[in-house]
Amino acid sequence: MAKVSRRTGTERTWLLTGGLLGLLFAFPVLSPSVYYVSLLTSAALYGVLAMSYDLLMGYTGILSFGHALFFGVGAYGAGILMRDAGFDFFSAMAVVLALSAVLAAVIGLLSLRVKGVYFAMVTMAFAEFFHILVEKLYHITGGSDGFTRIPTPVWLGGTVQKYYVALVFAIAMYLLARRLVSSPVGSVWLAIRENETRAAMLGYDTFSYKLAVMVISGMMAALTGGLYAVVVNFAHPGFISVSTTINLLLMVVIGGVGTLSGGFIGALIVQPLGRILSSYFRAWLLVFGVVYVLIVLFFPAGILGSVRMWRLRRRRPPGAPRGPEAGPAVPTASPAGPGGAPMTPAAPRATPGAGPAAGDGGAGGP
Amino acid sequence: MTLGTMTAQESTGQALHVDHLSVYIGELHILEDVTLRASRGRCTALLGRNGSGKTTTLKSIMGLVPPAGGRVTFYGRDITGRPAHEVARLGIGYVPEDRGVFTGLTVRENLLLAQRKRDDERLRRVVRLFSELDPLLDRRAGTLSGGERQMVAIARALVNPVRLLLVDEPSKGLAPRAVRRLAELLAEVKKEATVLLVEQNFFLAAELADHCYVLDSGRTVYEGPMGELEADEETRRKYLGVA
To answer: Most buried residue among A321, A340, B157, B185 by CB atoms closer than 10 A?
Structure first.
């Protein structure tokens, strides 16, 4: 089967990616202040968190209002283990990963029985339960004040080191997520997002696939939370709050749902912009609101999603439908299966009017 | 063209037995004591007017609509109320009325997604059979015509070893030329798999089916060889509105 990949603009994409990475790695040198470096560190980590949310919402169509729970579990888990139990960073992260996997599996098993808004409500209830629990367990968690004094590993000592660790972590997580969505499992996630019943009709146990994405995205969020707590040397109940999940939702919507990298763009806007605006305007939330409205108005599919839609329109063969079925920014997955051998000796790209039925005016759909 | 779908053992006898199936949706009694059999290696047509319960029967067999009573057995195995993914894994392919293709995916991705166990040779044979799809493999299914989508839907059902194919209104909304091509393709498919065909186009059903059932208001009102129904003008007129 011939490989399923975008073939146009590949070189341009590589050039852009290379240039962007070069710029990001050179940023500490180019930045006028370490403040901006720490802003970008925070944005990189929130970008990973948003990306993990995008796996859930953008790729599988599961709207959770409790995703921040895993971020909080990671932050508190790593912080408590390192501060109070003497764990080193990597051991703490390993425990956090295992814990978040079990927690995500349990919550998934209980909540995935319901769908849509009911699922969102159940996940929100779980997040709120843990939010309250963290506030009540004052002796361990520091209550509503949160806690600091998390031992920082030597290699995470300075702002620049933290930046590079966060950047490498973000790239690694992105590559992992990209690999996942390009895998057979990713194709089934996409199918579930498009139509769960159809996916089931093809023989896929959609519940298991949804559980899998919940566990994977939960683990990714927890890992990010653990690293974030160590980087900022702080854990706070706000990490678990519904408003954190809503912020993630905004990041994904602004960047582009179902794009993975859109989460980073969203985080880059929401995180640093919020902090910068707050230092100049007292009514910064109002300005923020206007920015959100403008983005949603002018980029209805998110920034990256709109760019992809625009590129798709340019490539669309003449006469192809222009309606929603033409598909907005649906990520290109390389479904599984027979991934190497060609389906036919030559599988040419569709050309306008190709094939006997392509221009069959009479064969219009219902 | 062979898809190697049926084993020699399966080429005779009974594939599917729907026994006194009843389905309620809310307060509505959609199916009442529907009984039908699909013989191995044959094409059985399920006919009837709009709202007679044909689609619900297929959905119920497929596990998409829970039955209130009755039994569905597939090669002797009780599959009543089993979830759709389990039913599909037993070798029942379903081509729904709305085609059910993933419009955001390309034709190739639709076919690859449908194949649960890698079998390149089978894929090649399916694409060879549905030759119109070959140049469209990299087109998004959402940009295809109705006839092309129908081909994707049927091809997708055949990329796995299918022992029974449920096809719901394949000719619906298609132009005569596309219907003709579809009839040729289904005739090919019929050679290799047991087919249960729901169709409003009586002439297409008559061309393809060996045996038929007629549903009216959720009940089976007629059963017999297709040829007999073709000759029975009164029944056709009464239940199908076809002279």
So the answer is: B157
